[in-house]
Amino acid sequence: MTDRSVPPPADAGGAAEQTGVGGAAGAEPVTARGEAAGAEPVTARGEQTRKLILDTALRLFRERGYAQTTMRAVAKEAGVAVGNAYYYFGSKEHLIQEFYAETLVEHRGRAARVLATETDFAERLRGVLHAGVDTMTPSHEFAATFFKTAAEPTSPLSPFSAESSPTREASIALFREALTGSTAKVDPELRDELPELLWLAYMGVILYWVYDRSADQTKTRALINGVVPLIDRLVGLSRLRVLRPVTRDVLGLIRTLRQ
Amino acid sequence: MTDRSVPPPADAGGAAEQTGVGGAAGAEPVTARGEAAGAEPVTARGEQTRKLILDTALRLFRERGYAQTTMRAVAKEAGVAVGNAYYYFGSKEHLIQEFYAETLVEHRGRAARVLATETDFAERLRGVLHAGVDTMTPSHEFAATFFKTAAEPTSPLSPFSAESSPTREASIALFREALTGSTAKVDPELRDELPELLWLAYMGVILYWVYDRSADQTKTRALINGVVPLIDRLVGLSRLRVLRPVTRDVLGLIRTLRQ
DNA sequence: CTCGGAAGTTGAACGTGTTCGACACGGCGG
DNA sequence: CCGCCGTGTCGAACACGTTCAACTTCCGAG
């Protein structure tokens, strides 16, 4: 109903049953490449230290920004030695991977509200997108400074990387659900590919959001509200005879380009 | 004619007369903000030293990659002190701005070939896009390593930053020329905005190119060849009565979002 | 010719992320 | 009880980008 936000879930953890992916995303510590990823705690004490360092780091990131937060400061604030942080986290960047996971869980929780009640495709999509922005809003400044890290193709933090795969798939699942749970009639050929395309559009929204300097990122909200009807109309039009070849061309191109 | 490349210009410097922007892009040393930009050489000796440092840096970047190239290494290889490099270039990142400028000049030279002979819009656009990729191809690996730096919103290297403005405008001018020099009939409302949109699409192509791991970036070529007809068709369709409101919506949205 | 000052140049020093060899803890087999 | 060894912890040390106060070069006004 509102033009903007989706309220946060009362309990983010309890909202996971909505998606088919479930808890797989939040708890995948083992990296694809065994190198430089930091050790996994075995003891209870280790678990505690790890959590202490992580919480301290994320708090400082949000308070002072990513670049302004020193690993030494994190260590000092957490009351441990610098080397200890590197025992659990392969690098400063690796601390951010946790941030992704946390963000996804909250996004899922917020999106569940809309997905449970609404049936109109455009409205569902709008809800999921706004929910994503809602989730990230408190970290806007912080996100902008570390965004560059995620952009590097070879970085494990890249949304396209193998290391981000679980989180990415879970995120795509959100858009799949927005589609399948709706009353929208879609070209069957398009139906399978669309969720990934919507996720891609979401990445575009995030890209815009990161650069958005308007107060409270109002423009990003306008982007969402403006682009959703367009997508909705386009998806509807895709079944028209006239546009059939275009649809087919687009799908063909996408299949070719998928890496 | 060819499916791919546009041959390099015999003399990159001589091809500038094609655009309306002319030499403004290559020689705009003064930054919008006076801070941290490095000094401008006044004497001939200074000019020489600056060029020496820049050439050495770009060579090492291409040879070893951006991150692997130390400022100390650049200085040593150029036979000067570290501080000297910082006298001319505000930071390591500022060395890349120069790379942008060089790339633009060569892009312009390559594109001029197609723009001088072809009149079909799609073909002109295709030519400009391929020319851009041709220009960057030798630096593909290097580009991937520094790309993350350019992605950060606050970085002067961001293609959207004020500091990149001259280069960006010159680049947009290329697409404006691709349009105005063609026989394409475009919705007059769209005509003014389209070049910037095409440039945005070009940024998208570059984004894909940076991530493209296929041999010789074949997929990026496929992306261009596939997406150009789509754009061409869309532009043509924009004049249709049925799509008029959509066109208007898109334009309205874009005007709102322009920062 | 002289010499003042702008332009150019130097390299040590600072704060950063990260590494690494050494040390402390704690439970378990003997 | 002892010694062992894997887990956890430490902090000095390294290489990096960057800064800056001091120095050198050299042109042109007097």
UniProtKB/TrEMBL annotation, chains A, B:
Q: Where in this protein does the record put region Disordered? A: 1-45
One GO molecular-function entry: DNA-binding transcription factor activity
Question: Which residues does UniProt call coiled coil?
Answer: none
DNA-binding region positions on the chain? 70-89
Keywords, A to Z, come to: DNA-binding
Is ATP-binding one of the keywords UniProt gives this record? no
Please identify the protein, giving its name as recorded.
Answer: Transcriptional regulator, TetR family
Task: Tell me the organism.
Answer: Asanoa ishikariensis
